[in-house]
Amino acid sequence: MILPSLRLSRSTTLTMLGTVVAVVFFTWVITQSQVSARYPDAPAKQVKQLRFEDRSDGSIAVFDYQTGKQIDSIVGEAGFVRGALRTLAQERKRRDIDNKPPFELIARQDGRLTLMDPSTGRTIDLESFGAINAKHFARLLQIDNQTTQQR
Questions:
Q1: Contact (CB, 8 A) for 136 and 81
Q2: 3-class secondary-structure state, position 132
Q3: Whose CA is closest to 113, among 125, 101, 122?
Q4: Residue 23 CA: distances (Å) to CA of 27, 34, 85, 102
Q5: By C-alpha distance, which of 135, 99, 111 is closest to 46?
Q6: Which among 125, 120, 95, 121 has a CA at the least distance from the CA of 108?
Q7: 63 with 53: CB under 8 angstroms?
Q8: What is the model's pTM?
Q9: For the segment 29-83, what is each residue's pLDDT rounded down to a tens digit?
Q10: Is residue 27 within 8 Å of 19, Cβ to Cβ?
């Protein structure tokens, strides 16, 4: 069986070509809109390396990584702190990274506060969740290594 030759008019060919170009363009636009825009970080004013450890009583012990001393204990609900740490911990678990490497709590010169996991590259801009939530982490920068505080 011989297939008849397909002859398209010039306007039909241009319409089809235009449709393909439009689909490719809109696919590219949608893809680009899903890429998150991130402004460059301001230089660090203060960096504190911290380790967080779950305790059997449900609290979270906070350790200064440099000294190994416990500097805080997070008790009670503390939903934002727990949620932020859970997000970073899940990424470590996906990559088979244990809880030994420290997180970095970074106070920036422009007033922003960042919680970063250098082992995965994940970053949480804490001020994005409001000043009250950011203060839960900001207070960890103020604690000296001589005292262990509970909240």
A1: yes
A2: helix
A3: 125
A4: 6, 17, 41, 46
A5: 111
A6: 125
A7: yes
A8: 0.68
A9: 666 555 555 678 888 999 999 999 989 998 999 999 999 999 998 888 778 888 8
A10: no
Q: How many residues does the chain have?
A: 151
Please provide the DSSP assignment of 2-48 as one string: PPPPP---HHHHHHHHHHHHHHHHHHHHHHHHTSPP-PPPPPEEEEE
Cβ contact 98:106 at 8 Å: no
Please count the CA atoms within 13 angstroms of the CA of 2 that sit on its side-chain side.
2
**CA-based nearest residue to 113, from 101, 128, 98, 96:** 128
Cα atoms found within 13 Å of the Cα of residue 26, Cβ hemisphere only: 6
Which residues partner with 73 through β-bridges?
A: 61, 150
Residue type, 120: T
- Spatial distance between the Cα atoms of 126 and 81, rounded to a whole number of angstroms: 10
Tokens of 8: 């398209």
Tokens of 108: 């920036």
